[in-house]
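Bug: token stream looks shifted between consecutive jobs. Job 1:
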Amino acid sequence: MADTVEMKIYQALVLRAQAFTPPTGVTVVLPGVTFSPTAQSKFVSIEVHFNRSIETDLSLVLDPIRQGFLRANVMWPKGSAIVDGYNLSGQLRDQFRRGTKLFRSDTQVRIDEDPEIGVLLTGETHHTIPLTVRWNCQPQAPA
């Protein structure tokens, strides 16, 4: 059975996140990977989300434009210099900067706008700095 477009999109995004080299002491937690953080753990959790599709072909023969976002939550321990958490968010933003094109066989995932660093959220043990990477996948037009 052939891989679906959704699977190729997911794999392209996760492989890009996996290619990120974090600073010493920071763990990148990919989807589906077991991780048990402590109150002092510095880590980034990665999530891939699919949103709605946009039909561009009146005949409904071509695939739609698929779109969604990758969320990277930078989890920084309370009591540690939060500026270092923002620095890590900026490094991740550079990993997925606008103009990035990710390829997985015959599928191209594009990032056409700069990722957004969100509002700082404070929990019991960690600060969360969300980074949102909006992506889209254009249909393959027949030659």
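Job 2, same session, no restart:
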Amino acid sequence: MNIATLVRYWATWRPDHPAIIHNETRLSWRALDQRSDALARGLRAAGVGKGDRLGGLLTNRIELPLLIIATLKLGAIFVPLNFRLTGVELLPLLEDAECRLVVTEAAHLAQLEPASRSLSFAIHALDCNDARPYDDLVIADGPVPTEEIAATDPAFICYTSGTTGQQKGALLTHLSAIYPGMAKNIAEGLTWRDSIMVAVPLVFTGAVISCFIQFTVNAGGTMVLESDFNIDRYLGVIERHRVSAATTVPVVWERLARSPEFARTDISSMISAACGGAPVSLDLIETYRRKGISLIQSYGLTEASGLVATMHGEDAMHHIGWAGRAIMGTEIRIADHDLNTVPLGETGEILVKGPHVMQGYWRKPEATAQTIVDGWLRTGDLGMMNAEGFVRIVDRSKDMLISGGINVYPAEIENALAGVEGLADYAVIGVPDAEWGEVPMLVAANGGDHAALCEAIERVGRPALARFKQPKHLVLLGEALPRTLSGKISKPALRQRFPKVPEGALRLFAR
């Protein structure tokens, strides 16, 4: 079984059932199959074959899921590219993936310029006269594109970062991408009758892998794809399309609950309302429970195809702060530095084993060997387990913060700001933010001309950092930053000193 055969199955079994709803467009499973076939013919004619990489630099539009399925039908590997990244940030990803072809749109064509100057890949664009048109890739007539694709063949390269700021591509196979959906659908009873809401960019693992591949393609349901996130529209869409499943970060559920439309909107269709990325408060759980909805917490990461642990709705009230139990067929254990299992209730690194663990990091055998040891994925996250098998996330040892549901790695920001005049001793940490949950804050030991320093930081940071990575605050200390015995800046000490934005912090990247 592979993802392409699942699409063909639903196109035969329930051809007229909606696969995707996007604004006023409704695409049935038959239409999704036929239109992705036409696109696959065009991609093959353009030279894309099995094992080739194809990049998608697109916003949420109907062509994106078509492109994903067409790529997978050829046995090629789809590379989701975040359109919020700058050209400088996209360059190393495209160098690493060596895409044969990238599909984009007019608004994001310029972001490919740095890569196109040094790399050889074809560009096709929508709504644009400055590149080969997307329509050239659509060949309506011809034989059905076929390819021998094993379940263990690669399907996606999803890029993630870490403490070094170096982007690594998690190589997900057809099986690993599908498997968590099978586990969740069996546990929660999601079927072809369900509608899955996606209002975040379909380039993040939680959207493209979890919501589209696992919860829609696997179950034969309907993906309700929104162009962007709008609180009042989100609520209305849930009511209008009887959306039954959605997974997002707590800050989104909180903003929905604060909307004036929340009390009068019927969202009782929700049977799977899940949170990831941060703990869920008792108040938030009770707010949704009063509307008859069980808000549950889950845990996952890109290297495990998006989902590792979850819980039943009835467990949510009794396990506040816990991230759930291992999904079916998955093993979780908590280990010490030597990877020995620690006693229940003790903190250690979360290790995961299962068919959904990535094949490895693309073209990085050393990083793969360090991350997957004897079949166990070292998540880098610190947690504990209780006697019932529930896992609690204690800390993110990978030094990561989550802003608006997007993973942000301080090392990337610190690397990008290296060389800023007047900025010599500095670090980035996450601080709470009412709108985004967390935002990056820059802490530096430097003094001098504050205005000039802010101007220099913004001058370097704007072209090098996507907006969600740009630090929103600057704290200037009159002393050296705290360091560990080995001489490294102590991030835990900084986070303890600055649990929130202090008075007197300077604003950065306000425009």
